[in-house]
Fold these 2 entries.
Entry 1:
Amino acid sequence: MSTQPLALASEAPGHGRRRWWWPWGGAQHDTVFAYLLNVPALVMIFTLVAYPIGYSFWLSLQRYNLKRPDLQRFVGFDNYLQLLTDDTFLNSLKISCIFSFCSVVLVVAISLSLALLLNETFLGRGVLRSLILLPWALPGVVNGLMWRWLFNARVGAFNGALLSLGLIDQYQTWLIDPTSALAIAIFANVWNLAPFSTIILLAGLSTIPSELYDAARVDRASAFQRFRHVTLPWLLHPLLVVLILQTLNAFRTFDTIYILTGGGPGEATNVIALQTVRTVLDFTDFGMGNAYAYVITFITLAISIGYVAILHKRGSFEV
Amino acid sequence: MTATVAPTQPRTGARIGLQIPWRQIATYALAIFFACYLLVPFLWIVLTSFMTEADALSVPPQWVPANPTLDNYAGFFNPTTQQRLQGSRAVEETPRGLLNSMIVAFSTALLNLSLATLAAYSFARLRFRGSQLLLMLYLVSRMVPGVVIIIPFFLVLRTLGLLDSYLGLILSYTTFTLPFTIWILKDYFRTIPRDLEDAARVDRCNWFQMIWRVFLPISTPGLVAAGVFAFMTAWNEFLFALFLTNTIKSKTIPLIVANFANDLDVRFTFMAAAGVLAVIPPLVLALIFQRLIVQGLAAGSVKG
């Protein structure tokens, strides 16, 4: 699809004239050198990610509660089987799915319109461009705190604004109602995460050659047609990146919700990441906690594989 | 649907003539809407941080502080006895927390860039067996959620004696930002023309000289994008900090802000001021480098 990276990919071998399959020439040298360059990164990732992944999987097969060390034993997949009938788990999975789906849809809608808007020329564009950096830079914890304060039932600005507009006749307890609490959690998360997607999409838009638009104009294409036939095809790749990043993020969201609602009211916003941390920290149930964690991994991994598959498929007939 | 509202290209006016400029009106309306959406929530926190507690708790809320004050900020660095009581421990810990975060985030960015540059160069310039597999491996390691590795990670760091230390945090943040920085840099490096390296080779520079003097200087946008990303991730991270630190020796600012949130006695205005302080460093960084960040990411967003 894009011409430039394609051209670069085709001249990829290290030193032009060497044949990559020739075992005693440049290729061999390249391979050794390439792996040498990767050693530091690989050492870090292996000791600090690969080993923990394996070990935590091992733990997920055990009954292992720090408070009852005498009961520790190997239970195979019992923890996972137990999850299937565990209401808390099924509930948190459901909430995570709703939360993630709504977050991703809203993030894509908002970041796409923002990116397209910022690609226009208008007075104050620079200011708006800088403004999108604000939610991006905001730590999740501060984000949670901010929305909790805005939706505060006694003194919150949201209540104040609605009251002065006459939309409500008394202060509402937004974070006590299960539905509105979940909606607020989604909204807060979207507010925090949409700007990064906007930046990715903006970067994507900046690579579209303007000749394409000129050509479309000559052909008297309407604004919608230009979007449909020029902008959208070029944006597909960054959009996929956004989709996957946001899905992964949404399934892991922890800090914003931890501060905003702490999973409450009841378990209305108890997303799966929160439930995992609770199981580990509050109940010190390492076996179950790791089983929870692995469910998150499987879900995110399945989504990522789907994503990579789409990219690959697109690559086979488009790039 | 939004797409049809927001047109796709700057040049307007050509065929509009004397008509009402709907397009401009729509553009500005949307721009104003988004500006409010992005700014107002945080502005409210900033304003609260300059209020006295009584003003902050007033109903209906004051939009502009009636008695603006800097007390909340001054309290962090030189708390009065009363502030010490109302702000509890979190107030005293804020300056040190900011320092801890700064050290950790900055080191994470540096360590990331040095490790990622090497790996990214190999993917951008060398063709070798298993390169695709290796890239996938990096990607997959990024897919693993933090909660999966946190417990064994905790145990590893305990064995190494790195709990509650800067190094423990730096190492953990580096591992989960590294895959992404490698991808950003790889994509950026691929856009750099080869001629410069060849010229350096002709000048008999060795590989490290070539990287340091020729390659890295022209890769600035990619390096900045990757570095800022690593800095921000480290600055904002909460879950690992929650598990891996327990004293002010290494507590980072998100933890301290969370302490505010969990302490029901604390004054709202302190909380707001701490929140504002926690945002300033990453925000300033993002503002300074915004142009370079978009440039640096542009290389990767087209073809991952």
Entry 2:
Amino acid sequence: MQSSDILVTHPVGLHARPAAEFVKTAGKYPCNITVSNLTTAGKTVNAKSILSVLTLGVQQGHIIRIETDGEKEIEAMTALKDLIQTNFGETA
Amino acid sequence: MQKFSGIAVSGGIAIGPCWIYRPVSVSTTRKPIEDPKPEIERFEKALRDAEVQLEQLYNRALESIGEADAAIFEAHKLFLKDPEFIGAIHTAITDERINAEAAVAETAEGFAQQMLVLEDDYFKARAQDIRDVSRRILYCLNGISLDQFKLSQPSIILAEDLTPSDTIQFERTMILGLCTRHGGPTSHTAILARSLAVPAAVSIPFEFTSINERSEVILNGDSGTLTIEAPAKEIESAKKAQQQWKLVWQSRLKSASEPARSLDGKLVEIVANIGGVEDARQAVEFGAEGVGLLRTEFLYLDFGRLPTEEEQTAIYREIFQVMGNRPVVVRTLDIGGDKQVDYLDLHQETNPFLGWRAIRMMREHPEMLLTQMRSLLKAASPESDLRIMAPMVSSIEEVKQAREIFEEAKTSLREENALHVEKTQFGIMVEIPSAALIIEHLAEFVDFFSIGTNDLTQYTLAVDRTNERVAYLASPFHPAVLKLIDSTIQKAHEKGRWVGLCGEMAGDPVAVPLLLGMGLDEFSMSPSAIPAVKELIRRQDTNSCKEIATEALSQPSIKAVKELLARQR
């Protein structure tokens, strides 16, 4: 199992397009992927579910924990971290 | 015959079959089921149907309202593929053995409730989206198709209320008139009707049950009345009135192309607020003598990245060609933290209307303003009359810097032999009280001023006009706002600068005599308001307008000003 805590720097946090990109990327991998919002200390949810990710209410400056478990867990983690750290592919 | 009265919001008379927009409600009461398998299959089929519908809606929205607003239907599609949402519905059907309708409605509501407790308004608003998707699936489960929203013949649409997503479903040519039970003069229905130039009335207390589908009704958008079950005689006279109205409208359009000169010979410029080439064509049709406000935000929102000089030039050129030698006032980028433009480095601010927006971005990104000004100047032809203005100015330093960039753009283009336009002017928007109070100093650096009354009202009265709880306080008829408008005009005139006004106020028949009395040179409004305002100005005498203005400026309250103006009409 892989686990990683990441700061969300995107101005809109994890909603609108960033949330959609995040969920789409997670959906490409067979392993289980969960995400939780450490800043609001809320629940842990399925990262492949757009509705669940939205209920985390992740805003800019929040830290989220991603956990991947199973087939291609390392690749999945790398892809999600890259996505967030490159600001969802946008040049800021 | 039954007659209902409400608020008239868009003029004209419509006679024709009514079409009642009745979002069907589907029962979502729990019902036990014997065998979950066919219920799951029903649900799966509904999901596929919903997806096809959303695809169609998306394409339609793309054509009619643009990509940014169409994206909502893309998001809805993603909900249909959500493993947790779909999974929970499956579980409810299989394990709890309940019907698909109850499973969908309860699961969706569960997610909606979770969104509603979040702090951020954006997340809260998503609750509405989930309910919308849920309604769509419920419709599909019951074979209620989108076809119910397809009008087979041009009709007068009667509804409880209409939202932007409701109206997207109608073909423009099928709308004879709009009539709703709810809403006020600034409701979405009212605004939409005026921009489509179809008759409309709101707050009409009709009963859906008393109206037969497709029965002939009469909607009068001037008196704000709806007549149902009208006898033949009534319909005949309505038809005559309609003919009359059409003649008046045509002569209005014809005389709209003539200049607006008051009884005593004072000539003012009547121009249009536009946001693209389509509006430009409409403006010319309605008799606009030019453009008083070309908003340019759409360029920055549509591209999803910074538009290049070439891309901007091509779009501006198209608009300038439509306007020919008529003056065109262009407002440079006016955007801030209330909009989602990721590449502009706009952060979500707690107070976006007081934040890093519009001309304030120039300090960090002067190149952006330079590119926009170069594109505008490059796009203008030798016959063009181009006037560029900067929004959200609060200090003289900003005006100086913007003017320098304007001059730099001209010089650099001249060196490249790419400057063809001869008539150019530089100006600023007056929408912050601090600018209005130092007009005599700002006048040294500009050729003209344009008063933005919507923002000037918001900033003077400290009212966020998007906040419904305080929006009632926001009126440009507040004496404080009127004083700022008046002193801007007087001080600018002393320095030999002309003044325009491009807020909603310029097209308001109540405000027109007042503004005329203050000496306003240019009135800029939505194209469809132009014919009526020109007619109104031709009936005014500027001397009596001056008296009205003087009296209005000495009133203590919005109410007193409005009463005074009402007496003059």
